[in-house]
Amino acid sequence: MGMNVTQKLISDHLVSGDMKQGEEIGMKIDQTLTQDATGTLVMLELEAMGIDQVKTEVSAQYVDHNLIQEDHKNPDDHLFLQSATQRFGIHFSKAGNGVSHPVHMQRLGKPGKTLLGSDSHTCAAGSLGMLAIGAGGMEVAMAAAGKPFYVKMPQVWGVKLTGDLPDWVSAKDVILELLRRHDVKGGSGKIIEYYGPGVKKLSAMDRHVIANMGAELGATTSVFPSDENVKDFLTAEKRGDDWTPLEADADATYDIDEEINMSELEPLIAKPSSPGNVVPVREVAGEPVYQTYIGSSANPGYRDFAIVAQIVKGRTIAEGVSLDVNPSSRQTLSDLIKTENLFHLIDAGGRLHQAGCNGCIGMGQAPASGRNSLRTVPRNFPGRSGTREDSVFLCSPEVAAAAALTGKITDPRDLDMDYPTVDIPEPTINNDLLDEPLPLEQARQVKIEKGPNIASIPDFDSLPDELEISVGLKVGDNISTDEILAGGGRVLPYRSNLPEISKFTFEKVDETYYDRAMELKEQGGHAIIGGSNYGQGSSREHAALAPRFLGLRVVIAKDIARIHWQNLPNFGVLPLTFANETDHDKIKQGDVLKLTNVRESIQQSNKINVEVNGKETIETKHALSERQIEIMLEGGLINWVKKGEVPS
């Protein structure tokens, strides 16, 4: 029997385990990606491990999140990152070069390679025929140090694409259709592989749009073949020699089969406040709009901006609407300038911002209270925009442009114009803007610059054999890492200062959590009770690290999103799930939980009994591998590394 693309990529990099669903496998990682909101910790972790230089084929550090320089913290950390990359042999992309995912695709991504990134949207590189996975920073640091990456073998979900996209429908509507069908948990434990005749109708950047938002389905990653369209993209980027073909065998099969006829799609939109809350645009047409926002890693290509420029060309946006233009990369911005499409955007009334993530993670461009914002970004979790009570819709560039012109949510097919065509220009390429790694001997002379806002990661103790702790917080379903620890201009500047950033923990859910957690910390710590899909969204390890700093020892949930589930034991937090989900209703905030003989229990069985208030006992389960159990016993991955337990 033939192999699909996913199986080929995994088998080519498999170093331990068998490719059996649910079994832990270890894979060699060829490339790593970090961005500035997560990279500071990764660099501190590399330093703590005593790494001389990274062992990957390519590692790259991007500055794209924390671009607002209202005081010293962000620029100081940028200097820290630049000096650390010089010391460790890592590519460095400075502020203004753009969002990590499209820049990596343009400059460094290669078909057939593995990529591990400390950003959940690392999966966007699947557009090139890569196995690209988002993970916590500690795991990326380990991969950069030449160690395998471990994950439970997912199911391979084959999505056959047929037909062609109609006018006014684009790649964003393909991934929104999958979210409409399956919601934010639909991809959990799965790799989505796209194949079929419809794939040939999608450019490499169209595929980026679809692969990027596979993260919103909870998928491990998304994979496309490396075909002539990928070759054309790399050739245009003057990297044609990096192309290699990679396609599924003719007799390949999938664990799950699905089909999307792109010819039948219509413009879609995700209503507040979940990427899975998808409906046809026509169902919400007429709702007033305050802001339309184009850009981000979810719609980063030249075409995604140029189509908006052509729609608004010679027109003026509606009164009271803010059209925010957020270029995804310096290269894309240069191309928009030379083709006059930037002129059309600005002339129509658009507002130009610097190339970067910006409003996607609440770093500027926050919408007004009580007003609707239509965005081409990947996520609309509550408050992620920077406005606490926000109303953010996710949509395609075409829908955003139509709303900008009309001042209300509008099906773009109702505009009085023909669908514009966009010609893709020869890219404007300046390879000097991406700093190359220094030679080893020169790198060893570099002193890492640390500003006053950088604090070392504290030591954490090992797992106690008995825990008697209070429930510090109880939450419902689909709590995201944005709600556990927000992004945005208030919070992200403290990303390298754990004591300070921990003060923002769970503030969107319960403003009293920090003070309560600090009190409970003196009493041995606390537990958190979660619902379904706890910890969905961003890969930020701060969402595990900050609660751990505040004394979190155990999370018990109905189920836990993959990346957050992996991050918890990496910092010594025991992740458990209810054997019977109805037991979630039996535990209240403030209840006292008792776990006895914990160390032996997690080694001998996957079942852990938890006594509630000294009266009732409920059964919980863990899904830790033998390797993760060792890490958990030591109190986290850093302690495990220090003990010298890391295999080659």
UniProtKB/TrEMBL annotation:
Entry EC no(s): 4.2.1.3
Keyword Lyase: yes
Top EC class for this record: lyase
Domain spans labelled Aconitase A/isopropylmalate dehydratase small subunit swivel: 510-581
GO-annotated molecular function: 4 iron, 4 sulfur cluster binding; aconitate hydratase activity; metal ion binding
Keywords of the record: Iron, Iron-sulfur, Lyase, Metal-binding
GO cellular component, one term: cytosol
Record's catalysed reaction(s): citrate = D-threo-isocitrate
Domain Aconitase/3-isopropylmalate dehydratase large subunit alpha/beta/alpha stretches: 8-407
InterPro entries assigned: Acnase/IPM_dHydase_lsu_aba_1/3 (IPR015931), Acoase/IPM_deHydtase_lsu_aba (IPR001030), Aconitase/3IPM_dehydase_swvl (IPR015928), Aconitase/IPM_isomerase (IPR050926), Aconitase_4Fe-4S_dom (IPR036008), Aconitase_put (IPR006250), AconitaseA/IPMdHydase_ssu_swvl (IPR000573)
An example Gene Ontology biological process: tricarboxylic acid cycle
Subunit structure: Monomer.
PANTHER family referenced in this protein's UniProt entry, alphabetically: ACONITATE HYDRATASE B, ACONITATE HYDRATASE, MITOCHONDRIAL
Record NCBIfam families: acon_putative, PRK07229.1
Entry protein name: aconitate hydratase
